[in-house]
Amino acid sequence: MVENQIFTKHRLINLFIIVLAIWFTWFAQNFFDEYTVRVINNVAIFIILAVSYNLINGVTGQFSLEPNGFVAIGAYVTAILTVDAEGMLYQYDIEEPAQWILALQTDFFWALLIAGAFSALLALSLSFPVFRVRGDYLAIVTLGFGFIIRILAINSPSITNGSLGINDIPEYSNLYWTGGFAIFAVLAILNIIYSKYGRAMKAVRDDEDAAIAMGVNTFKIKTLAFTTSAFFEGIGGGLLAALLTSISPDLFTFFLTFQLLIIIVLGGLGSTTGAILGTIFVMAGLEWMRFLDEPMNIFGFQTEGTPGMRMVVFSLILIIVMLFAREGLMGKKELKDLFKKKKVNK
């Protein structure tokens, strides 16, 4: 009886959060100024990327450094499927676009799904060689994948327009798209985490050899996490392309992966709630601290603007947070865990 009451309480809390998120998406899109909406759009896209990256890196415990590669694939696939043939002929200066590229056209929704599916299929094919190694070796292999994708983008001018990138991408990404997919990504990943597959992922993270001894198909579980993560990273890349309206290989360097790694470590490896909080803290916080780069009046003293000062302050804040919260803001806990009553040992 008590367990049923707790379960019902958690469901009501989750439902309230979902309704609140939907209401905030609508309210922000209709009543916030353009700059604030753009910042929230960026935060929503990075929430998709962070919670999906956390699934493979935090929940499953596989030190993967591949997100920039899958985000790049999603961005380029979405751009190719949404920019019309005339626009491509106009901007492809290095080499004429391939004829099959010109024939590809679809709606934004289908472009996002195709981008996600393409990334997932590539992740599925990569999982066979990638998961033959573990630990630091896995990090090196996946890091190399990200570099390969970027080099292919530069050296395939008939498909990606090479180093010039693709411009004039239709600006579809409003808060209904980014916020909607962010809510969907969080719900989908939480459902995986709380399923038997999620429990198996945590078992792989805690002790892979013990999980194998207990009969867990670790390759299957790691592949599921890797493929799911790639799917949402592809969708996030497509939304990012439609928000920026211009992409190039320089946008998808290792810095993007490093940024996501900071977010999930700060929030707490293995916590989806932590990934969301880490995204808000990093992406929105960096925007809010832009005033530190500008001239300021402090107690009557006028200071000159110092470009990069916000990064110095932000780095100090990160150091302080990690010193006092070594497992991140949430550790491995989710939001529902905060409402659990602690058992008192008699």
Description of the structure:
With 346 residues, the protein is mainly α. It has a single domain, classed as Orthogonal Bundle (ABC transporter involved in vitamin B12 uptake, BtuC). It is 69% helix and 2% strand. A two-stranded antiparallel sheet has the order 1-2. A hairpin with a 2-residue loop joins strand 1 and strand 2. The radius of gyration is 21 Å and the shape is globular. The two termini are 23 Å apart. The model has no long low-confidence stretch (mean pLDDT 87).
N-end to C-end Cα span: 23 Å
Radius of gyration: 21 Å
Strand content: under 5%
Computed structural class: mainly alpha
Amount of helix: 55-70%
Shape: globular
List the helices and strands and how they pair.
Blueprint: H1 2-31, H2 34-59, H3 67-82, H4 85-91, H5 99-102, H6 108-130, H7 135-154, H8 157-160, H9 175-193, H10 196-206, H11 208-213, H12 218-244, H13 254-267, H14 272-288, E1 296-298, E2 301-303, H15 309-324
Antiparallel strand pairs: 1-2
Helix pairs in contact: 1-9, 2-9, 2-12, 2-13, 2-14, 3-6, 3-7, 3-12, 6-12, 9-12, 10-12, 13-14
Task: Give a quick set of tags describing it.
346 residues; mainly alpha; ABC transporter involved in vitamin B12 uptake, BtuC; two-stranded antiparallel ribbon; membrane
